[in-house]
Amino acid sequence: MGTLGFLLPFRMCTHQCQDATKYAIDIDDFVKGLEAVFQGKATILNRMRLSCMFYDKDRKKIGFGDDEWQVMNEIALHRGSSPHLNTIDIYVDGQHLTEAVSDGVIVSTPTGSTAYSLSAGGPIVHPSLSAVVLVPICPRSLSFRPLVFPSSSSLTLCIGDRSRAAAGVSMDGRVSHVLNPGESVTIQASPYPVPCINRSSISDYGDEQPGEEGVGPGKEDDWVRDINNLLQYNATFRSKALLRYSGKH
Questions:
Q1: What CATH number did the domain enclosing 117 receive?
Q2: By three-state DSSP, how is residue 178 classified?
Q3: How confident is the model at residue 65 (pLDDT cuts 50, 70, 90)?
């Protein structure tokens, strides 16, 4: 469920917690959340996913039958261990957008915009939006900037015939395919979103401190709290650690 806590806001520290009391509180927190859901007190956020289909040079599907790969965060085409840049033709709704010469390309959901896409310089997108984010990985051109498309768009990434290397494909961090020149992947919004509980809609923990991960008050929208607590959004360079060693007590 990720590593920062955007998708699993309930604290479950079974493998880390040494304090039995704290562990009991965490379990109680989780149980209260489930009870609120069953009582109809929770609101949900439908987080969109991506549907990915792979094709060979002749536009025949690669895989078993009509396999569609469902992606929660992102699909990334990358050069892997090759020393050469990939050449990737990008099409939007059948129209040629550009030829990308880069280490790779990321296509992400709003949920994935705080993952690999963010590390590659992509924008942070609110998860309630229906959008598809296209982000280059170390492009050769300085003018190749990230783009945001409506979820109705269909993106096709085709490994160019001039590409000097095949492209590795990873989906949600898992390596799945290798695309050779002429092969492609078509990416669309999936009709099957993932419903996620808004913790703040069922939380009545007035004593909890807002500085903890996945904890704090809100108005049925955890996102603003989370980008501050989990990503340290717009935090200053002068961290608390520096203040501790600056001689101020």
A1: 2.60.200.30
A2: strand
A3: low
Range of the domain at 143: 47-189
One DSSP character per residue, 193-223 reads -EEEE-GGGT---TTS-TTSTT-S--SS--H
Q: Is residue 228 part of a domain?
A: no
pLDDT band at 211 (very low <50, low <70, confident <90, very high): very low
- How much is the pLDDT for 176? 78
Other Cβ atoms less than 10 A from the Cβ of 89: the count is 18
Which of the 8 DSSP states describes residue 114?
A: G
What does pTM read for this prediction? 0.79
Burial of 97 from C-beta contacts in 10 A (0-12 / 13-18 / 19+): middle
Tally the domains of the chain. 1
Structural domain contains residue 143: yes
